[in-house]
Amino acid sequence: MLMKWIKCQVNEENKHSFSKAQEGWGELRHCAGFMGQIGGWNRNEPNQAGILSVWKDLHCYESFMQHQHAEIFGKSDQGSTYKNISVDIFESISNIGTTDITDFVDKVKLLRVAEYSVGNVKRARFEQVLNDAGNRGMIPDMLSGAFGKRQNGRYLAASLWDNEDSHQRYADKGWPALINESDRISVSLIELHPKWAVI
Question: Which fold has domain 2-196?
Answer without folding.
Answer: Alpha-Beta Plaits (3.30.70)
